[in-house]
Design brief:
23% helix, 26% strand, Double-stranded beta-helix, single chain, seven-stranded mixed β-sheet
Length: 299
């Protein structure tokens, strides 16, 4: 990821992105960004220009001591250094602006790990149940991420990411299903409490390209043709998905507009060594301040 003569001490000095103000964190991320190799810049440019839809950087030279993976949902995770956060910030500067939703905890990034008691839930902290195909923020009324950054702090080869390129998906879907998925015949769950749904399509046109807003667990067709099209969609997702293992010190960058992703089921041990991923969202909207935390408004 970095130049051959990169001084890893620059990563060690990465300040925290948590708490009030991101000025120091973003300034340091800019220093890290300047140390990217030409190959890394080329990949990020291809992502930015929509020539590739996802990419996994591997063997990132993070040297920080990793605390045990948490086992309780919304646990406060101790951190002495913030090297993985520094990498995320440096990459985000090439793609847009960092933001998050208050519902994920109120910090600019959130942690994903198997939580005790949620093993078979639909939550992103589940484990023994597959995390279904989705695009993040798919039903949010104001803003969905343009890119998702998933930094794997601690890997588990049994818990792989599944990624689907939207163009590949559409090539394999029946034309009739594609047409129906472009109509506002689907209920998207926006909020569970109070319960609120938005009626809108799954597929959208942006010029010559398609984009997608979908959450398999929280979207449902409102009539027979919509339900059949959704069934075709779900079946095809499983046929064309690419499996991407979780490697420690890897960063998976996803185009959230033109990819869907999922995660295979796995059996957590709750011994401090389970899979742990740090997630951040990036928007290309210039009217969103870097570091914004958005609250859900149903008005």
């Amino acid at each position: 990821m970095f130049r051959r003569n990169f001084d890893t001490g620059l990563l060690v000095d990465a300040p925290t992105p948590y708490g009030a103000g991101l000025g120091g964190y973003l300034s340091h991320a800019q220093l890290l960004n300047q140390e990217f190799s030409n190959a890394t810049r080329s990949v990020l440019q291809q992502l930015r220009e929509n020539r590739i839809r996802y990419y996994q950087f591997r063997d990132i030279p993070v040297t920080e001591e990793i605390p045990p993976t948490a086992t309780e949902y919304s646990a406060e995770i101790p951190g002495k250094t913030f090297q993985s956060e520094g990498v995320i910030g440096a990459v985000s500067l090439e793609l847009g602006r960092l933001f998050n939703y208050r519902e994920t905890g109120g910090a600019i990034m959130h942690d994903i790990y198997p939580a005790r008691g949620y093993e078979n839930s639909k939550s992103f902290v589940n484990s023994t149940r597959m995390l279904s195909f989705h695009s993040d923020g798919s039903a949010h009324p104001e803003l969905s991420p343009d890119y998702i950054l998933l930094y794997c702090i601690r890997g588990d080869q049994n818990a792989a990411n599944l990624v689907v390129d939207l163009d590949t998906l559409i090539e394999h879907l029946p034309a009739e299903a594609v047409n129906i998925l472009m109509r506002p015949l689907f209920r998207h769950l926006v909020s569970e409490s109070p319960q609120y749904f938005a009626l809108k399509p799954v597929l959208f046109r942006e010029g010559k390209c398609f984009t997608i807003r979908y959450d398999e667990d929280n979207t449902s067709g409102i009539n027979d043709e919509a339900m059949l099209s959704q069934q075709s969609l779900n079946e095809m997702l499983r046929k064309v998905a690419v499996r991407i293992p979780n490697y420690t010190n890897s960063l998976l960058v996803l185009n959230n507009n033109r990819c869907l992703h999922a995660r295979t089921s796995f059996s957590p041990k709750f011994d401090g060594a389970d899979r742990w991923v740090k997630c951040a969202y990036v928007t290309t909207r210039k009217n969103i301040e870097n570091g914004s935390i958005l609250s859900l408004s149903l008005k």
